[in-house]
Design brief:
- One of its GO terms (cellular component) is plasma membrane light-harvesting complex.
- One of its GO terms (biological process) is photosynthesis, light reaction.
- This protein is globular.
- Helices cover 16% and strands 25% of the residues.
- A hairpin with a 6-residue loop joins strand 2 and strand 3 (38-44).
- The chain has one domain: Photosynthetic Reaction Center, Chain H, domain 2 (Alpha-Beta Complex), CATH 3.90.50.10.
- It contains three helices and six strands, in the order ββββββααα.
Length: 122
């Protein structure tokens, strides 16, 4: 995803799954603690539904909407940590696993590779 985008501009935007099906509306954006780069979005999945966390990488901001490259069912089944609170590293790992993403495949220059922080040797 574009890293130069203002995270506040994502709030209120429509979110769509990989098939173009509307999932909901971006409710909140979560920044990486170390870099300040937008990392996760909470998407309100319906009027009386909860928010689902979605990764902003590899999602794309296209035509004023967020395109998430996962199926709607997978997104709706994402772990629910509630919104408005900080995501812990453990919660982030659960989300990475849920989406089948490698938490260590972060942009070059990132100093928060979980493997290294966990004390694993390179």
């Amino acid at each position: 995803m574009q890293t130069d985008i203002d995270p506040r501009s994502l709030i209120g935007r429509k979110a769509f799954d990989r098939k173009g099906t509307k999932i909901g509306t971006v409710d909140e954006v979560y920044l990486d603690d170390a870099t300040g780069v937008p990392e996760w979005a909470a998407v309100r999945t319906g009027l009386f539904s909860r928010d689902a966390f979605v990764p902003l990488e590899p999602s794309e901001f296209v035509e004023d909407s967020l395109r998430i490259p996962f199926d709607r069912a997978l997104i709706k089944d994402a772990p629910d940590f509630g919104v408005g609170r900080h995501l812990s590293p453990e919660q982030e790992l659960q989300l990475y696993r849920h989406y089948g993403l490698d938490s260590r495949s972060e942009p070059a220059g990132s100093d928060r590779e979980f493997g290294r922080l966990a004390g694993q040797d390179e």
